[in-house]
């Protein structure tokens, strides 16, 4: 089976400012956020990156979404290299993360149309897609309210539908349910199942084991920037719960 | 091209349908108009004499000859004896001028010879804070002066009242006035317009995380940069135009009677020549501000680092105001902002320099293009965009 996302030796270090060094109580000038990570996501799979905060999950996903550039390595997403043709990659993916915001001044409806147009969609395609997404996320009630006047949950939903406006085949999702109220979180989880059913390829990062257990086909454990374990969910767990297995791996790594 | 238009449209909607933004953009023009008009009105009030007012002149030891001259010029004369009380009257604006002649003024004047000791004198007391008194003082002074020179006239200077000795035309006067004023004014107003929106549009989007959303869309960074620069230029132009209109409409009220009416001096041709200078300058200014705003992390920071450039532009405007005499080296027209300032000076002094104009417009556009290229690189840099 072919890979929709193929990650080959991604590597990324950040310089630490004097302030950051103090905050992290370290004398190191750089932090190796992502250390030679490789993995593959097959078409139609949901791939879960698991790890504690600061393990390097978000940095990996940001590199895949071409927001930042790897120091070394590459990833090929549906045939496009994140290093050589980042613009092509951006056309193929939907990137969902809380750090991407919508402008407060505009309504969800306006923002949806704006980004759909930038993705080269026709008006007809846009309206059809909009009707579908707004319906399933219950956005119709506040579609014409300015984003600035929406609640946090509404804003998250709005960001979600805008990121999916162009119906991407590959979705990169950083902490899908972070900061959402339980009901919205349920809407998002249900939607992820629906996306999976419709054959989309999804890579998501999370530290919520139950979510990963429910959704993911494959699991990658990232600890201190390194891909420590990687397998199908079943093979990795081997009858135990995901949480149990994660801490086994984590403690084994810490003991080394 | 389509993507650039989509981004431009969003920016224009953003700024031109937001009431608060509209106020920021157009308030300066309205305020300038109101302020200048009020100031002009106040200045005129302070310097005009009440209509139909006859100078009230108090005299001590009045001279018959002078009294006759004054009466025939329409003044009302009253002979008084108490000098101190008369001075009080002048100070309290009950009378306009007090004339104190030395005794037997007329006969002493007739007998006086320049070689003999002290000349007979006349003292004129007035109140400069009162427009009526000042006016009366100048009438009296002029009369006395004429009387004195008629007594010992050897020759006249510019004595023929029917000849206008100043050969400048009203148009030339006005052109000189506007050519010293307009470069600084236009540069300043363009910068004001650009600095009201650019930090908000670029640093603001960066600060609020909405720029990142745009950066993960498949639009190229160059198109984002161009869309921003073009739309911000349009808005800066509109805002600058409103401020300029406010200023020009109010100017005649501020400098009433100086004959510097802009509509009588410049033809449509002059305005057409101004257009490319303004357009290319706006592009340059907006690109410059955009680069600063892309570099800054917050709106505040963007405003802070762009204010020195605003000062520089005003300084350049003032500089060209000081050294406006023609004959500039062509290479000088390669210096951004200074070139625009010189070009505007040339055009408004009715001596356009076509080579300078061409060099200015082309170099401004080239600088703007290089600036957009730099912005593209900055948009692509995680160091600049995300401070990593």
- Write the CATH homologous superfamily of chain A: P-loop containing nucleotide triphosphate hydrolases
Largest sheet of chain B: 4 strands, mixed
Radius of gyration of chain A: 19 Å
Strand content of chain B: under 5%
Topology pattern of chain B, helix = H, strand = E: HHEHEHEHEHHHHHHHHHH
**DSSP helix count of chain B?**
15
Q: What gyration radius of chain B follows from the Cα positions, in whole Å? A: 31 Å
How many DSSP-defined strands of chain B? Answer: 4
Helix count of chain A equals 10
Percent helix of chain B = 55-70%
Oligomer: heterodimer
Question: Judging by the overall fold, what is the CATH architecture of chain A?
Answer: 3-Layer(aba) Sandwich
User: Any idea of the CATH class of chain A?
Assistant: Alpha Beta
Q: Order of strands in the sheet with the most strands of chain A?
A: 6-7-8-3-9-10
Structural class of chain A comes to: alpha/beta
Short characterization:
The complex is a heterodimer of chains A (256) and B (388). Chain A has 256 residues and is of the alpha/beta class.
What does this structure look like?
The complex is a heterodimer of chains A (256) and B (388). Chain A has 256 residues and is α/β, with parallel strands linked by helices. Chain A has one domain: Rossmann fold (3-Layer(aba) Sandwich). Chain A has helices spanning 18-23, 57-64, 86-92, 108-118, 123-136, 152-163, 182-197, 209-215, 233-237, 242-255; strands at residues 3-15, 30-42, 46-50, 72-77, 80-81, 93-96, 170-174, 201-206, 218-223, 226-232. In chain A, the strands form 2 sheets. Chain A has a 6-stranded mixed β-sheet, with helices on both faces. In chain A, helix 4 packs across helix 5 and helix 4 runs parallel beside helix 6. Chain A is globular. The two termini of chain A are 35 Å apart. The model of chain A has no long low-confidence stretch (mean pLDDT 90). By secondary structure, chain B is mostly helical. Chain B folds into 2 domains: 2-42 and 168-386, no CATH class; 56-151, 3-Layer(aba) Sandwich (D-Maltodextrin-Binding Protein, domain 2). Chain B is 69% helix and 5% strand. Chain B has helices at 2-16, 19-47, 64-72, 83-91, 105-111, 131-151, 170-208, 210-215, 221-254, 262-265, 268-295, 299-322, 338-348, 354-380, 382-386; strands at 56-60, 76-79, 97-101, 122-125. Chain B has a 4-stranded mixed β-sheet with strand order 2-1-3-4, with helices on both faces. In chain B, helix 2 (19-47) packs parallel to helix 9 and helix 7 packs antiparallel against helix 13. Chain B is elongated. The model of chain B has no long low-confidence stretch (mean pLDDT 85). Chain A binds chain B through residues 14, 65-69, 87-88, 90-91, 93, 95, 99-106, 110, 114-115, 117-120, 159, 162, and chain B through 3, 6-7, 10, 13-14, 18, 205, 208-210, 212-213, 215-220, 382, 386, 388.
């Amino acid at each position: 089976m072919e890979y929709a996302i193929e990650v080959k030796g991604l590597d990324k270090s950040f310089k630490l400012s004097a302030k950051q060094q103090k905050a992290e109580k370290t004398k190191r000038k750089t932090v190796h956020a992502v250390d030679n990570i490789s993995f593959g996501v097959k078409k139609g799979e949901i791939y879960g990156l698991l790890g504690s905060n600061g393990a390097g999950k978000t940095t990996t996903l940001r590199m895949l979404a071409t927001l930042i550039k790897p120091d070394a390595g590459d990833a090929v997403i549906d045939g496009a290299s994140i290093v050589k043709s980042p613009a092509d990659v951006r056309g193929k993916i939907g990137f969902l993360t809380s750090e991407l915001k919508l402008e407060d001044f505009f309504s969800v409806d306006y923002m949806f149309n704006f980004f759909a147009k930038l993705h080269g969609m026709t008006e007809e395609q846009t309206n059809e897609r909009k009707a579908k997404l707004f319906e399933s996320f219950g956005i119709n009630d506040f579609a014409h309210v300015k984003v600035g006047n929406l609640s946090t949950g509404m804003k998250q939903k709005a960001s979600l539908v805008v990121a999916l406006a162009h119906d991407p085949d590959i979705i990169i999702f950083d902490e899908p349910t972070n900061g959402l109220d339980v009901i919205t979180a349920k809407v998002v989880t249900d939607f992820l199942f629906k996306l999976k059913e419709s054959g989309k390829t999804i890579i998501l990062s999370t530290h919520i084991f139950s979510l990963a257990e429910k959704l993911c086909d494959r699991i990658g454990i990232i600890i201190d920037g390194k891909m420590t374990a990687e397998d199908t969910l079943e093979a990795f767990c081997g009858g135990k719960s995901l949480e149990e297995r994660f801490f086994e791996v984590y403690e084994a790594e810490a003991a080394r | 091209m389509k993507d650039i238009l989509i981004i431009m449209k969003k920016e224009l909607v953003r700024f031109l349908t937001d009431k608060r933004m509209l106020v920021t953009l157009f308030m300066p023009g309205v305020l300038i108009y109101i302020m200048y008009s009020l100031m002009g009105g106040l200045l005129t009030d302070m310097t005009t004499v009440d209509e139909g007012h006859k100078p009230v002149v108090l005299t001590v030891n009045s001279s018959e000859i002078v009294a006759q001259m004054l009466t025939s010029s329409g003044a009302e004369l009253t002979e008084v004896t108490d000098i101190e009380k008369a001075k009080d009257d002048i100070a309290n604006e009950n009378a306009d001028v007090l004339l104190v002649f030395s005794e037997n003024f007329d006969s002493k004047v007739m007998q006086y010879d320049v070689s003999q000791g002290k000349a007979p004198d006349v003292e004129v007391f007035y109140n400069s804070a009162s427009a009526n008194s000042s006016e009366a003082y100048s009438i009296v002074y002029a009369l006395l002066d004429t009387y004195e020179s008629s007594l010992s006239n050897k020759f006249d200077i510019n004595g023929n009242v029917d000849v206008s000795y100043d050969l400048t035309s009203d148009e030339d006067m006005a052109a000189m006035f506007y050519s010293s004023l307009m470069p600084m004014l236009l540069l300043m107003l363009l910068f004001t317009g650009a600095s009201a929106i650019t930090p908000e549009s670029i640093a603001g989007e960066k600060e609020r995380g909405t720029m990142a959303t745009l950066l993960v869309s498949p639009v190229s960074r160059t198109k984002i940069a161009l869309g921003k620069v073009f739309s911000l230029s349009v808005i800066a132009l509109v805002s600058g135009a409103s401020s300029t209109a406010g200023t020009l409409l109010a100017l005649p009220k501020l400098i009433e009677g100086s004959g510097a009416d802009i509509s009588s001096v410049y033809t449509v041709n002059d305005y057409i020549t101004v257009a490319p200078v303004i357009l290319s300058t706006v592009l340059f200014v907006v690109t410059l501000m955009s680069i600063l705003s892309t570099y800054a992390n917050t709106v505040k920071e963007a405003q802070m680092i762009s204010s020195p450039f605003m000062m520089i532009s005003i300084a350049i405007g003032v500089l060209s105001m000081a050294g406006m005499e023609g004959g500039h080296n062509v290479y000088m027209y390669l210096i951004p902002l200074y070139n625009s300032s010189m070009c505007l000076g040339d055009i408004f002094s009715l001596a356009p320099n076509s080579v300078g104009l061409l060099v200015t417009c082309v170099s401004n556009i080239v600088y703007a293009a290089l600036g957009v290229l730099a912005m593209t690189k900055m948009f692509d840099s995680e160091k600049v965009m995300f401070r990593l």
